[in-house]
Amino acid sequence: MDKDILVVGGGIGGLTAALALGQRGYRVRVLEATPEFGAIGYGIQLGPNVFHMFERLGLSEAVLRVSIIPRALVMLDALDGHEVAVVPTGKSFEARFKHPYIVLHRIDLHHVLLDACKALGAIELVPSTAAVGFEDLGERVRVRSKHGRTFEAAAVIGADGLGSAMRTQMLAEGAPNFIGYVAHRTIVPMEHVPAGVRRDDVVLWGGPGFHIVHYPLRRNTLFNIVAVFRTTTYAEKGDLAGHRAEVEKTYCDSQSAMKALLAMMDLERRWAISDREPIRHWHRGRVVLLGDAAHPTIQSLAQGACMAIEDAVCLAEMIQAAEGDFTTAFRRYTSARLLRTARVQLESRALWPFYHAEGIARDVRNATTALWDEDHMFRCLAWLYDGFALPTEGEESRPRVQAGSRH
Ligand SMILES: Cc1cc2nc3c(=O)[nH]c(=O)nc-3n(C[C@H](O)[C@H](O)[C@H](O)COP(=O)(O)OP(=O)(O)OC[C@H]3O[C@@H](n4cnc5c(N)ncnc54)[C@H](O)[C@@H]3O)c2cc1C
Hints:
The protein has 407 residues and is an alpha/beta fold. Strand 18 (283-284) and strand 19 (287-289) form a beta hairpin. The protein contains twelve helices and 19 strands. The longest helix is centred in the C-terminal third of the chain and has 30 residues, at 326-355. Mean pLDDT is 94; it is low at 396-401 and 403-407. The strands form four sheets. A seven-stranded mixed sheet has the order 6-5-14-15-16-13-17, with helices on both faces. Helix 1 (12-23) packs parallel to helix 5, helix 2 crosses helix 9 and helix 9 runs antiparallel to helix 10 (326-355). 45% of the residues are buried. The structure holds flavin-adenine dinucleotide. The site of flavin-adenine dinucleotide has 34 residues, from helix 1, strand 3 and helix 9.
């Protein structure tokens, strides 16, 4: 009876949790609100820390097959085009962090996870099923769907993202914190990318109140572009001409390469950039949260999905170790994950004005980063990229944080 688990949300975190539990002998059902698992298809960056988890799941090779290892992570000044900071991601990076930094199509990552889930035979994937609430039955939990279906399990994992229905019921709090920025995302064929744009790097152009990130995908045949900027006219779907006019005005002082990229972008859909304050409690009774449902972050460090994957493996391991004592499993999991994920949330917020600095703040940033070398960059990132050590059997469950300096 304790071996069946319900996962709400079939995103990266939910599927990883399903796979990790399935590999440990649990029967898992995954409820996904959308008709198709993994339908949102843009690029994603994954740091070397995530490979510690892929290795445990036996996925490293499959993920690497659909990934690109960029030459470097480069920040460029959007106003004058000069290099603000560079993190080389070649041989020295792999030697230092033991694993590569990768970029890949989200759909490809989803397929790696889905294929592995299907191969196990212990995981049932249930699309078009939005969970709306849960009921604690003591020894079981019952989840209701929007269309009136009910599902029971020994425990429920809320992996339903930023707008989590499981979290809303558990914590009765308000909407996420919208930081006043939106993102537009586009993938274009590589041959359409204008000359003068770096194609082998992950590039972030930082400007006052705006940035653009771009990188290659799928054996360099595709190019992923994300434009993020401050707006007072947020609307998820607005009129296209209005969005275009706003983007042209916002980026008017940016480099010509950026303007050429913006001209290729699909500006119809925009995503609000939001996060929440870190919190200490991610579980109640037999229901527990992971990924964006537990600790949503803005994307400055490109680590939200990485944290969801680390959560998922840690949670599965704690559930298995506790042999049916879910309270202990969830307490140990939260304790192990809390400070690392909170640090990602807080450092991501701290980095936002660094990316978008203007005036004297921009001059200070550029003068400071001019002194940073590879060694310094690696030391700054070590707390994150060195990875997360899963708590060992019998280890005292107390919050842990890795050492490491800040920017
Ligand atoms: C512009 C942008 C760029 C980013 N870039 C990166 C990056 O490069 N690297 C990185 O690591 N992270 C990145 N992130 C963050 C990353 O996308 C998220 O942190 C990650 O997707 C969280 O995974 P998750 O599984 O917790 O939630 P989600 O990916 O949000 O998945 C939640 C799933 O639950 C489903 N769902 C929602 N509600 C319900 C319900 N009630 N019932 C059933 N199903 C439900 C959703 O349809 C979805 O499939 C970026 C985010 C943004 C906005």
